[in-house]
Amino acid sequence: MLDVNFLFRITTKGCVQLKDSLTFQPVLCVDTTPYSALIPLLINLSSNEGKNQYNDWVLKDQRHIVQILEDCPSLKPPMDHLLELMPRLQARYYSIASSPKIHARSIHVCAALVQYKTRVGRPAEGVCTSWLEKMVPNEQDQYKIPVFVRRNPKFRLPRRATVPIIMVGPGTGLAPFRGFIQHRAAIVREGRDCGENLLFFGCRHQEKDFLYQEELLELESEGILQLHTAFSRDTEKKVYVQHLMEQEAAKIWELLEKGAHFYVCGDAKHMARDVHKQLLDIIKDYGKMEQNDAETYVISLENSLRYQKDVWS
Q1: Which residues in 147-182 are b (16+ Cβ under 10 Å) and which e?
Q2: Is 95 a catalytic residue?
């Protein structure tokens, strides 16, 4: 979306002159004669008093630059000026959802297809996911996409495979943990010792949203994975991953005391906050600690990289 950081003023020639608010250099002049009703809107949006209206009309209604131009048909900025003002599309980051021990020549990505309607009824979709959706290779069509790998040194498996791990990843937060679990499954199948692997996974509906269901259930049946699932819309009372943690509190504390690493991946706004609170409660209750002592315990987990988060809002 274009950051509309402009000032407007009405000229004597019956047009709205658009100026860059940083340089105060004219950017374009819009003929408003057929669209005089737009003048107050444009002036107000660019004023300090119009911040709330800008927030409502642009941000909350989720109008991107094309839709702003559609709704203000007298705005006809030169394309070269428009492109100069628009920022470059930012890269999209996805966790690798596979292990090279299992898939040596490919990298898997787990992403939710974003499609919805804005509050004004316009269809909207994710920029990257909707682009990827169309790229299904077959005998006739093969696709190449630009990718790069960004290292994340603070979100990785323990160096020793015998260290237990506890993973909390609802929805597409499961992505990095699929790679973790595949890695450890390969170790077990090689006949080597491996620590316990607990996964707390949640989604709305089991039939629609249970990602990698067959694979996870197979790993559970092999004894490689201890799987705990919550399907929040399939039960009368909504159950989330933090509720599963509460049910398995004794096990979580036992593994933490054995040196387990605790991982969280997914929504930062609600899920990660609720999981953090539940973790504190488990440490307080089973470690018989006061609030301050439990918080100190969590800080020590973070400092020793035994409590790692990969969250987004």
Answers
A1: eeeeeeeebebeeebebbbbbbbbbbbbbbbbbbbb
A2: yes
Catalytic residue of the set 74, 95, 98, 99:
95
Q: What is the pLDDT of residues 182-239, one digit of tens each?
A: 999 999 999 999 999 999 999 999 999 999 999 999 999 999 999 999 999 999 999 9
Whether 312 is a known active-site residue: answer yes
**Residue ranges, the chain, pLDDT below 50:** 1-33
Q: Which of 72, 194, 267, 310 is catalytic?
A: 310
**In whole angstroms, what is the distance from residue 159 CA to residue 233 CA?**
38
**Sole residue written with tokens 């799987």:** 227
Marked catalytic residue, from 36, 47, 131, 312: 312
Is 3 considered catalytic here? Answer: no
Choose among 167, 174, 231: nearest CA to 205.
231
Known catalytic residue at 31: no
- Which of 46, 203, 265, 267 is flagged as catalytic? 265
